[in-house]
Design a protein that fits this description.
TIM Barrel; 5-stranded parallel beta sheet; two-stranded antiparallel sheet; globular; disordered N terminus
């Protein structure tokens, strides 16, 4: 299967979980026939955490979750280290992005925020699965100058 990752975000299906499930059950086989894997990515609402995405995937009974720790921390202030434990067996692709809540709420490049990516990746590093890896927001955090 080609390593192609497409993100279908909440605005495509709205917040109707029944509709998500119904459409993913239809789309999964079509995508697979074309060598494409569809994954669900965290983007607030009913897909705000890895745990929520994994519930949808388990209900659909198909692959998988694209894990984005930055979004989990950004949108819901959920600890990605504990969240990834609830969906690790469903993860099929990974988005490396960092986030920080101090001194301001912002995304930033890996290693420049608050997420421990070593601990995060350890959860899925030895599964034996080939996993696409995407790096997002590779910029430094915005800082404000302090005047004396």
């Amino acid at each position: 299967m080609r390593s192609l990752n497409r993100t279908i975000r909440q605005r495509v299906f709205g917040s109707d979980r029944r509709l998500w499930t119904e459409r993913f059950k239809k789309l999964g086989p079509i995508a697979r026939d074309q060598g494409v894997m569809i994954v669900v990515k965290q983007h607030s609402g009913n897909t705000g955490t890895g745990e929520a995405c994994a519930e949808i995937i388990r209900e659909v009974a198909d692959e998988g979750v694209n894990y984005d720790a930055g979004n989990v921390m950004d949108y819901l202030s959920v600890d990605p280290i504990s969240d990834i434990q609830k969906c690790a067996e469903e993860i099929r692709s990974f988005c490396i992005k960092d986030h920080r809540n101090f001194p301001s709420d912002q995304d930033c490049g890996c290693g420049l925020g608050e997420i421990d990516h070593y601990r995060l990746l350890h959860t899925v590093a030895f599964t034996g699965l080939k996993m696409p890896l995407c790096c997002e927001n590779i910029f430094p955090p915005v800082t404000t100058s302090h005047r004396s």
